[in-house]
Hints:
There is one protein chain. It is elongated, with a radius of gyration of 26 Å. Strand 6 (133-144) and strand 7 form a beta hairpin. The strands form four sheets. Strands 3, 4, 5, 6, 7 and 8 form a six-stranded antiparallel beta sheet that branches. The chain has a four-stranded parallel beta sheet with strand order 10-12-13-14, with helices on both faces. It has helices spanning 14-24, 74-80, 98-107, 114-131, 167-177, 181-188, 207-219, 236-247, 266-280, 295-304, 313-323, and strands at 28-29, 32-33, 45-56, 61-67, 85-88, 133-144, 149-151, 155-158, 192-195, 200-204, 226-229, 254-261, 286-292, 308-310. It is of the alpha+beta class. The protein contains eleven helices and 14 strands. Helix 3 packs across helix 4, helix 8 crosses helix 9 and helix 9 packs parallel to helix 10. It starts with 13 loop residues before the first helix and ends with a helix.
Amino acid sequence: GRGKAGGIAVVRTPEEARAAAQRIIGMDIKGFKVPLVYCETALDIAREVYLGFTVDRDNRANVLMLSAQGGMEIEQVAEESPEAIARLYPNPWRGPLDFEITQLVFDSGLGEHARALTALINKLYRAIPDFDALTAEINPLVITGEGKVVAGDAKLETDENADYRHRDLVEKYGEILETDPYEAEAKRRRLTYVSLDGEIGIIGNGAGLCMGTLDLVARAGGSAANFCDIGGGARAEVVQNAMEVILMNPRVKGILINVFGGITRGDEVARGLVTARDNLKLKLPLVVRLSGTNQEEGREILKQNGIEPGANAWEAAQKIVAMTR
């Protein structure tokens, strides 16, 4: 939907290009702020085709898709006319064979361009293992008036778990394309963090515990500013790291920390939280739910240092909501 939103412009002079770029950069398109524009030569477009690769979770397989109905609103085509999209489920070990790709091209109704499309599909498929891609698509894949096949646009989504294998991509594109500044900073600090629209910062040691804490805050009448999972332990430096990122958000009015100490001892966690709070000179309300090994000792340490403890997660959620109102 970028074209319909005004995010794509055809210009004829450098001056028009500058004006279009100034208009587009910073635009909000479907919730995403435009950080940059990509300039390329205008094409003599005779036909727009869709070519894509992704993971088909329903069929538990990788899938290559080709449709003669490319361009804008390909999602609508998939929804309303699924038969207009030809699919190939290639063998994951050897990849697609040329005759399988050729059959895909003919199934899509683009048989007259079989030679050029087969070569291009092979190149796209190579990008999947080379870049650990989850999604790779060309839309539109342009067929020009001269019959040439040109990638008019492209999107590549890589598996972030494989970022360590592609440091060049991360360094070149990662920061500039990150849509949320807090998520970008959290990523640099190797934190599992998602920005939300509320006013209460959330830290939990475990994804499930953290998600449950978000629900409890909502049930108590508040709204979370983030999801932040610091993992199984709760070391002082990790907690401080997380709190620093949360406090960068000016909307945050208070912080709720929900820690379950299994192997981690509650008294050690409490000392770490006190250290993190003092290092940051935190002035906002802070409530901590601490449960598990040595929980009573940990709660006593929190009380002695002026940190509000919650006997359980529900009580802690109610307390932080009341303190931030």
